[in-house]
UniProtKB/TrEMBL annotation, chain A:
Gene3D superfamilies: P-loop containing nucleotide triphosphate hydrolases (3.40.50.300). It is a peripheral membrane protein. The keyword Cell inner membrane does not apply. InterPro entries: AAA+_ATPase, ABC_ATPase_HisP-typ, ABC_transporter-like_ATP-bd, ABC_transporter-like_CS, MetN_ABC_transporter-like, P-loop_NTPase. GO terms for molecular function: ATP binding. SUPFAM superfamilies: P-loop containing nucleoside triphosphate hydrolases. It is found in: Cell membrane. Residues 6-247 form the ABC transporter domain. The keyword Nucleotide-binding applies. It comes from the Bacteria. Keywords: Amino-acid transport, ATP-binding, Cell membrane, Membrane, Nucleotide-binding, Transport. This is Amino acid ABC transporter ATP-binding protein.
UniProtKB/TrEMBL annotation, chain B:
PANTHER family: GLUTAMINE TRANSPORT SYSTEM PERMEASE PROTEIN GLNP (PTHR30614:SF20), MEMBRANE COMPONENT OF AMINO ACID ABC TRANSPORTER (PTHR30614). Belongs to the binding-protein-dependent transport system permease family. HisMQ subfamily. This is Amino acid ABC transporter permease. Keywords: Amino-acid transport, Cell membrane, Membrane, Transmembrane, Transmembrane helix, Transport.
């Protein structure tokens, strides 16, 4: 049996009367890459954001390394402090990078180390430099985000997350906001992380990445988790007609 | 005929009177910043009562002319047994009036920040106070600077209204001067020049600050 880094059980999420997640079950194996795919509006981001409780799920359970996130017991919210404690070990990378524009690349990465991990400024600066070197930005450390390309900004955002030494990384369409020629550099960094054994959950429209890097691919539609299996069985021999039709649309759109 | 000597002579006492104008506008903006920040915080708080209070505060103060506020405030103080100097009453009224606008300036800047800015901080486990102190406020301040300087310039001009409660600031001093010299044009032109110099200086200060905080 493989250890699960994230156990999602029977999760439901409502926005008013609209049900964004319907009885979602998913196990994310530790040290592996799980890709979440599916049509727009199917609930991929919502599910990803429930994993670090940026979005509150209404019922069910999400356990990170066995520990329930967001609630102490069903219906009883966890304290802010306990939630922050859990979030420290979950890195997140957003589609829009969300770097802080008033700080240099290095300050962006150091900030969490100082405020959350309590490191000294010098120590945090040194760790930030290491993290930035790792994503290939040693020479851009003192640039502000406005002086970086989209791909570089997203790599800073990845460095900001990995500097915190997370046990789990969540990516929400990390390359969707990038010009096509900048996608590769971000995917390369992500592949390196995957090769090092980082547990990753990646919402993506990059089927190539899902096919070649993912260990598991989960397909969502209309708030339901339709299937989770090996990339081959989801992407090449899909059984469910909903997956087949999604892939057909994908191939049509990407062949010109 | 326009008399240049009279114009130059009026500059001196009016420059002296400018200290009241500056005291009222700077005091007003300082008080306005403190109260405006609190009102803005109330408006963004989870408590419905506080939010209603902030909304009421802003709409009342923006809806009543400063002159009327001044008169109401000034004449209501004795009723509640307070005998404060006209200067204090003026600064307090101007400050309270400015607080409504400043609160809106803050709110606008904070709402203009992409939600992801705070989310990125929350996601790495930052505490709410740090999210505000390190991520939201520094950006809100930078974004608000032009509007705040604008507000300060408006206050310098609005401070002419406090002449109604008997403070000898630039406008009131020039009225007195015009009455004794019988040379209104020269005197008021001198007053205009002094206002202009003050506000050009403030605008320059604003540009310098913006330049310094630009990213
Ligand atoms: N804050 C919200 N309030 C109301 N409805 C929301 C909110 N956020 C998301 N939704 C709805 O929930 C559904 C799932 O949204 P979600 O963002 O998770 O989709 P997604 O699979 O990530 O789509 P995309 O590929 O376009 O990013 C959508 O129908 C969306 O309109
Ligand atoms: Mg999404």
């Amino acid at each position: 049996m493989q250890a699960s880094a994230v156990e999602i059980r029977n999760v439901n999420k409502f926005y008013g009367p609209f049900q964004a997640l319907k009885d979602v079950d998913l196990s994310v194996p530790a040290g592996k890459v799980t890709c979440l795919i599916g049509p727009s509006g199917s609930g991929k981001s919502t599910l990803l954001r429930c994993i670090n409780f940026l979005e509150e799920y209404d019922s069910g359970e999400i356990r990170i390394d066995g520990r329930l996130i967001g609630y102490d017991a069903p219906g009883r919210k966890m304290s802010g402090r306990a939630l922050r404690e859990m979030r420290r070990s979950i890195g997140m990378v957003f589609q829009q990078f969300n770097l802080w524009p008033h700080m240099s690349a290095r300050e962006n990465v150091a900030e969490g180390l100082i405020r959350v991990r309590g490191l000294s400024k010098t120590e945090a600066g040194a760790r930030a430099a290491e993290a930035l070197a790792k994503v290939g930005l040693a020479d851009k450390m003192d640039n502000h985000p406005s002086r970086l390309s989209g791909g570089q900004q997203q790599r800073v955002a990845i460095a900001r997350a990995i500097a915190m030494e997370p046990r789990l990384m969540l990516f929400d369409e990390p390359t969707s906001a990038l010009d096509p020629e900048l996608v590769g550099e971000v995917l390369t960094v992500m592949k390196t992380l995957a090769a090092e054994g980082m547990t990753m959950v990646v919402v993506t429209h990059e089927m190539g990445f899902a096919a070649h890097v993912a260990d598991r691919v989960a397909f969502m539609e209309r708030g339901e988790l339709v299937a989770a299996d090996t990339p081959d069985r989801i992407l090449h021999q899909p059984q469910d007609p909903r997956i087949q039709s999604f892939l057909r649309t994908y191939h049509e759109r990407n062949s010109f | 005929m326009f008399s240049i000597p009279v114009f130059l002579e009026s500059l001196v006492p009016l420059f002296w009177a400018a200290r009241f104008t500056l005291l009222i506008s700077v005091g007003g903006i300082a008080l306005g910043l403190v109260i405006g920040t609190l009102v803005c915080a109330a408006g963004l708080s989870p408590s419905r009562a506080l939010r209603n209070f902030a909304a009421l505060w802003v709409s009342f103060l923006r809806g009543v002319p400063l002159l009327v506020q001044l008169l109401v405030f000034y004449y209501s103080l004795p009723l509640i047994g307070l005998d404060v100097p006209a200067m204090v009453a003026a600064i307090v009224t101007v400050g309270i009036c400015a607080s409504a606008y400043i609160s809106e300036i803050w709110r606008g800047a904070i709402n203009a920040l992409p939600r992801g800015q705070a989310e990125a901080a929350v996601a790495i486990g930052m505490a709410p106070t740090d999210v505000w102190r390190r991520v939201i406020l520094p950006q809100a301040v930078t974004m608000s600077l032009p509007a705040l300087i604008n507000e300060l310039i408006l206050l310098v001009k609005a401070s002419s209204l406090v002449s109604v409660v008997g403070i000898l600031e630039i406008t009131r001093a020039s009225q007195a001067q015009a009455a004794t010299t019988f040379r209104p044009l020269e005197v008021y032109l001198a007053a205009a020049c002094i206002y202009l110099v003050i506000n050009l200086c403030l605008a320059a200060l604003g540009r310098w600050l913006e330049h310094r905080t630009a990213v």
